[in-house]
Design goal:
This protein is of the alpha+beta class. It contains 9 helices and 11 strands. The protein has helices spanning 25-39, 53-56, 59-75, 99-105, 125-140, 144-156, 183-195, 214-230, 293-306; strands spanning 2-5, 8-11, 82-90, 96-97, 113-121, 208-210, 236-239, 245-247, 256-258, 263-266, 271-275. It has a 3-stranded antiparallel β-sheet with strand order 2-1-6, with no helix packed on it. The chain has a 3-stranded antiparallel β-sheet with strand order 3-5-4. Strand 8 (245-247) and strand 9 (256-258) form a beta hairpin. Helix 3 (59-75) packs parallel to helix 6, helix 3 (59-75) packs antiparallel against helix 7 (183-195) and helix 5 packs antiparallel against helix 6. The longest helix has 17 residues, at 59-75.
Length: 311
Amino acid sequence: GLVRVAGRDIEVLPKIEAPGANPSDAGVRRSLLEMLLVAHDTKVHVPEVAQADFADATWLDVFIRVFCRGLAEQVRRGLTKRYRVVEEDLGVVRGRILINEQATRNFIHQERIACEFDELDEDHGLNQVFRLVLERMYRMARAAATQQLVRELLLTFEAVSLRAPAGRWWREVQLDRMTSRFEPSLAMARVFLEGLSPDVQGGARDSFSLLFDMNVLFEEYVGRILRATLAQQQLNVQLQHAKHHLMHPEDGKTNLFLLKPDIVVFNSTHAVCVGDTKWKQLDLDDRRLGVAQGDVYQMLGYADRYGCGRV
């Protein structure tokens, strides 16, 4: 990911091999972005026209550009509006009168009427997520071209409230038939917000951290790619399948050591392959290829309990 401390960016790129050559920074940035988008099921395609971006910007700037271009495409079709309940003291009756509030709050100023009514506007949860993300992205974008993209979009969300990120409320935002076209943008917004590390954002300096665990990212990426690929062969891929235990005590009490393989491939009746994903580099000069003995024992446990000879 990327860490900014005292105005200096530290870009942390994963070790990704390229067949027959050392990968360029641009290639690694593109691979990291594609892995993030696939792993988080964003349904976003990284366009080929963005290839030049990977060479002259950090991967975070490229991530922001891809997000902004996708969101801008939907915004051009218009922001969605929703009804929300509003309580306000008005000069005329609108909606229904709040009797208790009128008697207490407007006891002296009886020319005001405490009303509750429905307001149709753009200030709802989905747009508030986008406003929050864009505000954060504007602070974090380094390149002028990236900042310009964010600034133009922020103008569209001026009438939307800026909510604090506390409580991770964005996880509860739901889409409906009217807002389903924003699904890729919402998924990318959640990736961005989930990756932020709030513990380095305090103080006077503009510091932040946006980092992802490559073990988890690689595991999700491989699993989702396999699921999409093997579905064409009528095979069902289950991720983090938790059904079997390694030990079954004779006294009949609770089973021990729940097994949770990263990948289990099923045909219509049984498991045909069990896999475990490791973010490790193989050592081709080692007769064991650098595979740890514990990893092999782990696979033997899977093979036994799933009755599967392919692991």
